[in-house]
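Budget justification aside, the reviewers requested a transparent look at the raw inputs and outputs of the sequence design task funded under Objective 1. We therefore reproduce one unedited record. The lines immediately below are the C-alpha cells for a 233-residue chain.
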C-alpha cells in the first residue's frame, strides 16, 4: 500500500526536524565556521600548521594535544568557559583575535569542533572552585613570589629573572616569561582570580608549571602580582 503524498512529506519534515538531524546541522555549521575563521592558523586538521600559522609567534595551538594554556579546570584541563573566553576575547599580544561578534551558539559549535580534534584525549573539565572567604596577604605574597616566581619573572616582575633565557615551551621553542608589570599583556586575564588559576594550574604546553601551594599562599601571590607589580598599568 502506497503512502499518500502528504503523509510522506510530513514524515520527511519530522525526520529533518529531529534531534539527530539538528546535531548534524550544528556539526556542519561548526565545521564551516572553523574552516572559515580558524583553519588558516590552526590548520584544517587542528594541528596548528595552517598556512598563516608559521608566521605567528607564539605558534597557533595544536588542538590534537588537548592542551590549552589559560585553564581553570581540574587536572589542568579546559572548561567550556575557558575556551569561550579565549574565542570571545582573543589573546592579547598573540595572533589570536577576538571573535566576540559570533553568537554564543556559534562559539559553542566551534568548541565542539576544537575538542573533536583531540578525540578521546579531550574531556570537558569541571572548574576548580575559586576559594572564597580567604583574605590574601600581599606582603606574604611578595616573599612567596621571590621563592617561587622570581627565578623566571625576575624580582621586579619584568620577565628578566636569571632563568629567563633558557626557557622552552612544550614544542621545544624558546619562550620568554611574561612581563608581569604590564597588566594589559595578561592573556589569560588580569584579575587576581585569573592569576590564581595561572599559579594553581600552570599553563599546559608552556614553561609555566603548576604550583602545589595552599590557596592562602596562591591568593597572596596573586594579590602581590596584581596590586604591587602590575598596579594600575
Amino acid at each position: 500500500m502506497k503512502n499518500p503524498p502528504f503523509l510522506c512529506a510530513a514524515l520527511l519534515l519530522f525526520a529533518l526536524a529531529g534531534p539527530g538531524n539538528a546535531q548534524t546541522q550544528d556539526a556542519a555549521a561548526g565545521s564551516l565556521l572553523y574552516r572559515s575563521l580558524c583553519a588558516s592558523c590552526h590548520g584544517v586538521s587542528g594541528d596548528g600548521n595552517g598556512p598563516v600559522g608559521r608566521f605567528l609567534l607564539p605558534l597557533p595551538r595544536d588542538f590534537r594535544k588537548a592542551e590549552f594554556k589559560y585553564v581553570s579546570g581540574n587536572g589542568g584541563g579546559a572548561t567550556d568557559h575557558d575556551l569561550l573566553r579565549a574565542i570571545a576575547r582573543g589573546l592579547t599580544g598573540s595572533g589570536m583575535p577576538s571573535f566576540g561578534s559570533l553568537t554564543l551558539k556559534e562559539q559553542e559549535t566551534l568548541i565542539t569542533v576544537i575538542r573533536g580534534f583531540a578525540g578521546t584525549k579531550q574531556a570537558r573539565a569541571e572548574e576548580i572552585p575559586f576559594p572564597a572567604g580567604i583574605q590574601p596577604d600581599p606582603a606574604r605574597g611578595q616573599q612567596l613570589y621571590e621563592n617561587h616566581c622570581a627565578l623566571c619573572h625576575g624580582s621586579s616582575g619584568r620577565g628578566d629573572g636569571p632563568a629567563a633565557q633558557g626557557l622552552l615551551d612544550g614544542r621545544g621553542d624558546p619562550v620568554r616569561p611574561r612581563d608581569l608589570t604590564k597588566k594589559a599583556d595578561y592573556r589569560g586575564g588580569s584579575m587576581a582570580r585569573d592569576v590564581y588559576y595561572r599559579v594553581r594550574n600552570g599553563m599546559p604546553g608552556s614553561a609555566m608549571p603548576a604550583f602545589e601551594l595552599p590557596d592562602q599562599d596562591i591568593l597572596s601571590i596573586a594579590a602581590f602580582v596584581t596590586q604591587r607589580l602590575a598596579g594600575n598599568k
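The radius of gyration is 22 Å. Residues 19-37 form the longest helix (19 residues). Computational costs for records of this kind are itemized in the attached budget.
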